[in-house]
Amino acid sequence: MLENLTQSFGKVLDRFRGPGKLSDEHIAEGLREVRRALLEADVHFKVARDFSKNVGERLKGEERLAGVTGSQQVIHAFHQELVALMQGKGEPANLPKNPGHPMVLLLAGLQGAGKTTTAAKLGLWLRKRQNRKVLLAACDLQRPAAVDQLVALGKQLDVDVHAETPGQPGVDPRSVAERALEAAKKGRYDALVVDSAGRLHVDEPLMAEIASVAEAVQPDATYLVLDSMTGQDAVESARSFSEHLDLFGVILTKLDGDARGGAALSVREVTGRPITFLGVGEKASDLEEFHAERLASRILDMGDVVSLVEKAQEVVDEEEAAQDYMKLMEGRFTFEDLLSQFRMLKKMGSMKKIFGMLPGAGKMSGLLDQVDDREIARMEAIVLSMTAAERLHPEIIDGRRRRRIARGSGMEVSDVNRLLQTFHAMQKQIKSLGRMMKGGGRSKKRLIKQLSRSGQLPPFAPPGRR
Amino acid sequence: MVLGKFRKGLERTRNRISQALKRLAGDQSAEISLEALEEILYTADVGPLAGELLEEVEKKYKKGDFSGTGEMPQFLRQRLSGLVQGPDDQAKPLSRADKGPSVILIVGVNGSGKTTSVAKLVHWYQSHGCQVLVAAGDTFRAAAVEQLTIWCQRLNTELIRAPHGADPAAVAHDAAEAALARKADVLIVDTAGRLHTQKNLMQELEKVSRVISRKIDGAPHEILLVLDATTGQNAVQQARRFQECVPVSGLILAKLDGTAKGGAVLSVGRELKLPVKFVGLGEQLDDFEVFNPQEFVDALLEPQEA
Ligand SMILES: Nc1nc2c(ncn2[C@@H]2O[C@H](COP(=O)(O)OP(=O)(O)OP(=O)(O)O)[C@@H](O)[C@H]2O)c(=O)[nH]1
Ligand SMILES: Nc1nc2c(ncn2[C@@H]2O[C@H](COP(=O)(O)OP(=O)(O)OP(=O)(O)O)[C@@H](O)[C@H]2O)c(=O)[nH]1
Ligand SMILES: [Mg+2]
Ligand SMILES: [Mg+2]
Q1: What is chain A's alpha carbon radius of gyration, rounded to the nearest angstrom?
Q2: Residue A195 host element (H or E)
Q3: Residue A113's closest chain B neighbor by CA?
Q4: To test ligand 1's pocket by mutation, which of A106, A117, A210 has the most ligand atoms within 8 angstroms of CB?
Q5: E strand or H helix at A275, and its extent?
Q6: Ligand 2 atom nearest to B112, measured from its CA
Q7: Segment (H or E) for B104
Q8: Cβ–ligand 2 contact at B139 (below 6 Å)
Q9: Which residue's C-alpha comes closest to atom 10 of ligand 1?
Q10: pLDDT-based confidence at A434, cuts 50/70/90?
């Protein structure tokens, strides 16, 4: 453990970097990684490019964080922006209320996106969560057995369906929707969910048709139903649907698979409308309300970096860390310091895996490789059996005290001896480290801060913070 | 392969491609051209593979390999169409049994276009003079059987079906027997949509395939994975997982009539060496064509209108 600490100091001294701001280099590096991740996740090429550029602009001149690399900090900042963007305004699942009138929801989208299934899911959701009496309207008169599909789903869920026979005179989507709305009013339903046929966004007659359905029933909310596996084309289709319809939100389906769902970001950018619900299975109950944080993590898929930075933010305070290193180097290293080191390392222990996966965190992961949770727990138990005086003045620990400490911690005296040896060795090492860094107190402190900003110093837990 | 109703015809497409690629190969600086190319490839869902291709092109640029106009476009067209395979024989895209019925099993994720492709395939076989039998192997989704029933009525073909919720392997078994008894030329088996991440459903699929192979020698003669052309990089994962479960022999790329370019099949083709047999170009029976790599690549390189 200690050797590693020394090593990283040494390496840092030659790799010492400039001022404590994010450099253009850091930003470019971080954004390159982010952009690659976004493209792999099917975020539209231009959206990925523009979005990362904008975030990069905002990051210019930002202070460096201690304990992580510059590009890691950039990735984290990007993640935050992504969450903020996806969150949008308002509570999207808060469907508008229109007392005395059935609330009307219209579903639109490409073929096979999941509209009909989602209509049934919404029906169930509205009944269960909002205690509404729901009517489903089967307005897909095009696809073979689309009406049967909705009728069957309604029967399974015990939700009423307004269905007419396709191919009969007067049975067109607009008229069926109008009659369904009438039926909903007459039957005192609180909600009407209108299913529609899948259509290509470039099919002008069919796009005009759905616009006309919307005009007839004046939906309180029109949703674009989008398959989460969609690639770059999501931008094209979403643009066209939002031009023809006044979209309220987007419902993302088939998220129970392993698609990263980057199309959601593209669609969010293009339509400006929030993602509202998520389809997570074929069953009617497989509908979830949207969580920006979760979807952002899924799209970026750099949760390891993000949580690393968050933990580093949590554990390390630059100023205090610098104080601690100062204190260490002045040789006033006590068992209290060691205790807080242990606690720190235990916190970091859960990050061991994370560190291992990170390129560029090699120095810290080397340090953490030495961390054996059980060993730390044993050493900690020994220190905890010491009195306050013993912790601050280790030189008073004689043979009698050693036996007492061993008994108190359930260890052998030899264990206590080993810990004391290690402790003295550490004290010596730290003193010599201090000598390595010549110069007055102020400049030393500055150097330490800079080192730790550039991510080269292991974070050190300030005493008293746990 | 015609480029769908919404394309203005192949000739115009070719013109526009050469326009775009001339820009790429022409007098403008390599940097600008590569940027344009990058956009074309990525927005066509070529994905991470685009990065590799761009590097290749850039290297060749620097070596001065593209001296004359048109050399770079030509290189790209060849390079891309080399990644995705079509049927060896355009006239006979699917394998046939030596004797007895040929069995085609249709698989894929939810909503990709399987059932519609089954209907289109029936139509295609019928136009080649074959007698076709269909099995309604999706006993799970609401009205999936009814959907196929309507198609089979229109096609005037017999459908082997079981009630909703029946074991799909049992349906496949009965259909195989019926195909033998009726001496049908072809049996096409539809299956329920399933995400490749669902283990139990993938096992179910494996069982359907096994039952068929026990009943008829060498069957299924083709297992076709239906991919939705609007799907992005997940297509690779789909193909991989389905391939691990059953011996997929080829792809059907459905919904290529929209603005999606279907570039993800390049990665699928490269990684899994699966030929694309057909493309779906609409919701009607004859919106279906044998895949042609060259035409596909030309359409892919056509820049997005906007
Ligand atoms: N795994 C999974 N499957 C889903 C989800 N939503 C829908 N599906 C399935 O996707 C397929 C297509 O769903 P539909 O509801 O028929 O889609 P649609 O948009 O109405 O299709 P068209 O009316 O033909 O345009 C079906 O197999 C559904 O069971 C989901 O969230 N997860
Ligand atoms: N535009 C277009 N639509 C298509 C094409 N192929 C299928 N569709 C439509 O896509 C939707 C889904 O097609 P299905 O054949 O039901 O898909 P599936 O894979 O059987 O769906 P599940 O059984 O629910 O998993 C339907 O609305 C079809 O009409 C195509 O090539 N082009
Ligand atoms: Mg539908
Ligand atoms: Mg189907």
Answers
A1: 31
A2: strand A191-196
A3: B111
A4: A117
A5: strand A275-279
A6: 19
A7: strand B102-107
A8: no
A9: B110
A10: low
Pair type for strands B132-137 and B186-191 = parallel
Quote the CA–CA distance of B20 and B26 in Å, as a whole number: 10
Q: What is the mean pLDDT of the segment spanning A146-163?
A: 98
Going by C-alpha positions, the residue among A197, A218, A191, A188 that lies closest to residue A135 is A191
Give, as one character, the DSSP assignment of residue B268.
H
Phi, psi (degrees; rounded to nearest 5) at B105: -105, 130
Q: Which residue of B has its CA nearest to A114?
A: B111
Answer yes or no: are the C-beta atoms of B280 and B116 closer than 8 Å.
yes
> Which residues in chain B touch residue A267, judged by CB atoms under 8 angstroms apart?
none
Ligand 1 mean position, distance from CA B158 (Å): 26
Q: Which two structure tokens, joined as six digits, stand for B72?
A: 């770079």
Cβ(B224)–Cβ(B105) below 8 Å: yes
Identify the band that residue A391 occupies on the pLDDT scale cut at 50, 70 and 90: confident
Q: What pLDDT was estimated at residue A259?
A: 96
Q: How far apart are CA B128 and CA B122, in angstroms?
A: 10
> Residues of B with CB below 8 A from A153's CB?
142
pTM of the model: 0.80
Contact A229 B232 (CB under 8 A): yes
Whether the per-residue pLDDT at A12 is higher than 90: the answer is no
Which amino acid makes up residue A306? V
- Element (DSSP H or E) covering residue A309: helix A303-315
Closest approach of B172 to chain A, Cα-based (Å): 22
**b/e map of A444-465 (b: 16 or more CB within 10 Å)?**
bbebbbbbbbbbbbbbbbbbee
* C-alpha torsion angle, residues B133, B135, B141, B142 (rounded to 10): 60
Instruction: From residue A326, give the alpha-carbon distance in Å to each of A16, A439, A462, B183.
Output: 18, 12, 11, 89
CA dist list (Å): B104 to A328, B95, B147, B186, B227 = 74, 9, 19, 8, 16
Instruction: Give residue A6 CA to ligand 1 midpoint distance, Å.
Output: 59
Nearest-angstrom CA–CA distance, B224 and A60: 51
Residue closest to B261 by CA, chosen among B297, B289, B208, B290: B297
CA separation for the pair B89, B68 (Å, rounded): 34
Q: In angstroms, rounded to a whole number, what is the distance separating the alpha carbons of residues A212 and A320?
A: 65
- CA proximity to A258, closest of B105, B199, B237: B237
Ligand nearest to the CA of B288: 2
Helix (H) or strand (E) holding B135: strand B132-137
B86 pLDDT tier (thresholds 50, 70, 90):
very high
Q: Is the CB of B215 under 6 A from ligand 2?
A: no
Residue with tokens 């020698």: B217
Interface check for A50 against chain B (CB to CB < 8 A): the answer is no
Which of the residue ranges A6-15, A402-411, B287-296 would you say has the lowest mean pLDDT? A6-15
Query: Which of residues B117 and A130 earns the better pLDDT score?
Result: B117
Round to whole Å and give the CA distance between A22 and A24: 7
> Where is pLDDT greater, at A156 or A432?
A156
Q: pLDDT value at position A47?
A: 94
Band (pLDDT 50/70/90 cuts) for residue A368 is: very low
B112 DSSP assignment: S
Give the mutation candidate from A232, A241, A270 for the B interface (greatest B CB count, under 10 A): A232
Contacts of A227 in chain B (CB under 8 A): 111, 228, 230-231
- In short, whether B137's Cβ falls inside 6 Å of ligand 2 is no
For residue A10, what are the contacts with CB-CB under 8 A and spacing of at least 6? none
Ligand 1 atom nearest to CA at B195: 1
Helix intervals (H) in chain B? 10-25, 30-43, 48-63, 71-83, 114-127, 144-155, 168-181, 199-215, 234-245, 264-272, 293-301
Q: Which amino acid is at B4?
A: G
Burial label for B103, CB within 10 Å (0-12, 13-18, 19+), is buried
CB contact under 8 A, B283 and A113: no
